[in-house]
């Protein structure tokens, strides 16, 4: 049947005709224009710079969230957007600026080479380039590797990825500088955090679960050489663990999703330990539109708003800011070209992949393709996002153990979640593996609520225990995972904490009054 | 090696697109029907003894829906009185053929059938409309008219509810469409399994969680008779993009369709965002978010030889239209029948009449209240009224003529 509906009448307008670009004058000052930004706005160089700078400062300024002297961690990926962000911040802080920016930036780069199976020489090369860029700014800088996100204790440490730590490396000298920088900040804040956990064997997964808060962690100050060696070993283990985890997810879309989650975890963790109260992300409007639509497609609709809003308050002590959300990727590209801002090419999971390589990749191709013919696409999507609630006003809501957004799995009967679970149940009864899944589904239904049946005395987390603590999107991401022990340690700790809470609650349940 | 069915030991003949499980024919039928039953009971779609119209187009969704509804009604004793309801848009070579298949269903399933046509409701067939407007925006007319036609047909049959064959793919597609268009009101409404509970006839979608692929599979293995030709008039191009995106997503991750519906269900709209208020069309009494509903505007346009009147958002274009009508009917402006748009009526007076912006709202209330009784043949292009009046108002204020309170008597009906 024809699926045209009543609402279909208002569709965005397609681009009418190519705009004349030769001989145009700037719409502000009537000088010769050098570029056209959106729709038909021609600018000369200086007016364009004013326009971009103003837009950036207005985005940051109008919320009044960044206070004077506040420490802000700027996340760099090496890509055009974050490079532009760094440049805008540098410009804003320079002496000649009329109204100086007042916050104190620190820089962070997360090396995700392990996820793409890059050879260590290439990862070293990338880190070297990034370090050079970061060092040239004079801001304190941090380099982390994605595998450090698997274990909180790893994040809290300052040593850089193994490839850089590798003795004899060209970067060895510079490494000292990074450590110095970071440590000098840290010593200001807390001397305790600047000490380093050395003995990895004591921090193995099982022992960490028994001592979830790591109180008995030995803090030993060591010489830099032995540190390098031990961390080298540690990273190799972590790298293997990460590769193993990603491999068992069995889908590029899930891998991308998990990498995003871990990346955010590392950022919030570094920010907390190093005393930053804000993290700035370089995502531009085009990227955020892709993110919003991708979120819809991977069952994260409830998080779409929080993933694209200017101030993301999902994490407890750290606020994520997106100061470039009003910029299109085109504007970023033009800004970078005019200012000779360099970006570093870093391959991702879907680099050189076809459109169907992953959901995010497909969505990107879809949005940018539509944007070409319907120039209002990105702003339409962002406008939708702005009308959605971020759920910030609702307090005491339970969060996902993995991505920290509020749980969306506690739904009433006629819902997609229940429909899926029913489908799985009804089309796979009978054989052994399926009855297990059947059980899993039942506990899935009680998710969040918990009737005590999920409790187990074993120290290993069961898949249903983990699933019950996750949001719909994270469940989807780890659906194919064979062994939940492969998950990042912080997730497992959180799951155990919840299981214990449930147990406690079930013990005292009969004395609890119904407050609702 | 033949794969065994996951539920019995027979040989499996298909892999479910929704879950990936291998099933035999009988087990698939059972799973498919049980899922629809589960949806119906979970959402308590029906009450015993109700009369339910099945919107039947002759296509796969509605054919399978009619079949499954009949089976479940008997199996689970819903005690529903089922009827088929078809809309004849008047498209030669498409709808006449598909209606043949609905008529066959009428006999095969033993369900009474009612056909209502655009021609009897509106006086226009789609063929005639296409002659007027061409192939560019014809689908807009069809979509707007169909919704009303189904309701009117259902009222004639005195049914309690309408069920439509919208499947999970359709719902997911609509979610994506509404995100792309920034239409927050529809985005919030489109995932509801039952709509129109306030006042009008409730409509529900028992196939909301059913994959299109599985519907085809079901029809194929049940050997159901359905009509599967695309409409001869070009489909809405923009919706086509969303559709292609959904299909591509499904290839990457089959659960994506349900995942999008979950996303749509878990969206919450900011409290401060204003939602369009659903009112009633002053002309035909059908629910509408404007004073006069879209169908009435479009119909008026067709009858006046201005078919583009209800199409698009461009105020410029509508303004031009309204002006044209205004010029045409300038002479009759003070006559008994206010034929042209109220805004046009005001334009010549804007120099002498000015009023404060805050009086506008009360003005509009008056218009819509008096509209019920007085505006019998008024309001051409009335959906643009607001913008036009505002323009005139500002112009009027600028010219700073003395202020004059607007009351309904000023409007010369």
From TrEMBL, chain A:
Region annotated Disordered, chain positions: 1-20
Compartment(s) of residence: Cytoplasm
Gene Ontology terms: cellular component: cytosol
Coiled-coil regions listed: 228-255
Keywords for the protein's UniProt record, in alphabetical order: Coiled coil, Cytoplasm, tRNA processing
Pathway connected to this protein: tRNA modification; 5-methoxycarbonylmethyl-2-thiouridine-tRNA biosynthesis
Gene Ontology terms, MF aspect: nucleotidyltransferase activity; sulfurtransferase activity; tRNA binding
InterPro entries, alphabetized: CTU2, Rossmann-like_a/b/a_fold
Primary localisation category: cytoplasm
Entries under Pfam families matching the protein: CTU2
GO biological process, one term: tRNA wobble position uridine thiolation
Gene3D superfamilies recorded: HUPs
Taxonomic superkingdom: Eukaryota
Chain's role: Plays a central role in 2-thiolation of mcm(5)S(2)U at tRNA wobble positions of tRNA(Lys), tRNA(Glu) and tRNA(Gln). May act by forming a heterodimer with NCS6/CTU1 that ligates sulfur from thiocarboxylated URM1 onto the uridine of tRNAs at wobble position.
Homology family: Belongs to the CTU2/NCS2 family.
Name this polypeptide is given: Cytoplasmic tRNA 2-thiolation protein 2
Taxonomic lineage of the native organism: Eukaryota, Metazoa, Spiralia, Lophotrochozoa, Mollusca
TrEMBL record, chain B:
GO molecular function: nucleotidyltransferase activity; tRNA binding
GO terms, biological process: protein urmylation; tRNA wobble position uridine thiolation
Subcellular location: Cytoplasm
Residues in Cytoplasmic tRNA 2-thiolation protein 1 C-terminal domain copies: 280-309
InterPro entries in alphabetical order: CTU1-like_ATP-bd (IPR056369), CTU1_C (IPR032442), Ncs6/Tuc1/Ctu1 (IPR000541), Rossmann-like_a/b/a_fold (IPR014729), TilS/TtcA_N (IPR011063), UPF0021_CS (IPR020554)
Top class in the EC scheme: transferase
Domain tRNA(Ile)-lysidine/2-thiocytidine synthase N-terminal residue range list: 52-232
Keyword Transcription: no
Keywords: Cytoplasm, RNA-binding, Transferase, tRNA processing, tRNA-binding
EC number in record: 2.7.7.-
SUPFAM superfamilies noted in UniProt: Adenine nucleotide alpha hydrolases-like
Pfam families linked: ATP_bind_3, zn-ribbon_14
Domain of life of the organism encoding this protein: Eukaryota
Pathway: tRNA modification; 5-methoxycarbonylmethyl-2-thiouridine-tRNA biosynthesis
GO cellular component: cytosolic tRNA wobble base thiouridylase complex; mitochondrion
Role: Plays a central role in 2-thiolation of mcm(5)S(2)U at tRNA wobble positions of tRNA(Lys), tRNA(Glu) and tRNA(Gln). Directly binds tRNAs and probably acts by catalyzing adenylation of tRNAs, an intermediate required for 2-thiolation. It is unclear whether it acts as a sulfurtransferase that transfers sulfur from thiocarboxylated URM1 onto the uridine of tRNAs at wobble position.
Family: Belongs to the TtcA family. CTU1/NCS6/ATPBD3 subfamily.
Record-given protein name: Cytoplasmic tRNA 2-thiolation protein 1
Annotated source species: Potamilus streckersoni
